[in-house]
Amino acid sequence: MICTMVSTNFQLTVLTRDRYQRIAKFYDFMETLPERKYLLWRKKLRSLVQGPRVLEVGVGTGRNIPFYPRQIAVTGIDITPAMLNQAAQRAAVLGVTPDLRLGDVQNLTFPDASFDNVVATFVFCSVPDPVLGLREIKRILKPGGKLFLLEHVRSSQLIIGKIMDMLNPFVVRMMGANINRRTVENVQVAGLAIEYIENLDGLGIFKLIIARVE
């Protein structure tokens, strides 16, 4: 049973990687409209991150790179080589040098208690086993370290939540992202303590989540 679960998770991870590998060159263009809304949220999130050692999970094309203060040492990981290439190009234009690496949040290669903060924006909708990834984040955070998430989740409104459940299989096939993840609950299941939650829209779909290692 365990072997089957590991195999299935690996297959889903490869599928996710390959999907984003295909769209990497077009990803920023595809996100042009929603990014107008996300931009202010990204800036707010970054204003809360103190470091000094920060890991960004799912760094993607490097959308968050411009907002990190220069004194923070940023390591960014992503499972997709083509997305990392886009992030490296963005960093070069900005004249900054984050440590960009291939990596999977479900199996982080960093030692325990390596980072002061971990950041992820719109990532855990695509992680095959989000609780496993969040447990890995807990492991590599220092005692008292904080996780900062900007995520879209399943709406708590009854009808909207059910619609999201119905649409989710189609959205996953098209875009690779789950629209009905219960990320707040997943953070708690992973053993992290919720410190702050802010609803960023009227439907309770977009959230800023801050959790810590106790």
Structure report:
The chain is an alpha/beta fold and 214 residues long. The protein is 45% helix and 22% strand. It has a single domain (2-212), classed as Rossmann fold, CATH 3.40.50. It contains 6 helices and 7 strands. The chain has a 7-stranded mixed beta sheet, with helices on both faces. Strand 6 and strand 7 (206-212) form a beta hairpin. Helix 1 (2-30) crosses helix 3 and helix 4 crosses helix 6 (183-189). The longest helix is centred in the first third of the chain and has 29 residues, at 2-30. The relative contact order is 0.14.
Blueprint (SSEs and pairs):
Layout: H1 2-30, H2 32-48, E1 53-57, E2 73-78, H3 81-94, E3 99-102, E4 115-121, H4 130-140, E5 141-152, H5 158-175, H6 183-189, E6 193-199, E7 206-212
Parallel strand pairs: 1-2, 1-4, 2-3, 4-5
Antiparallel strand pairs: 5-7, 6-7
Helix pairs in contact: 1-3, 4-6
Describe, in short, the structure shown:
The protein is an alpha/beta fold and 214 residues long. The chain is built from six helices and seven strands.
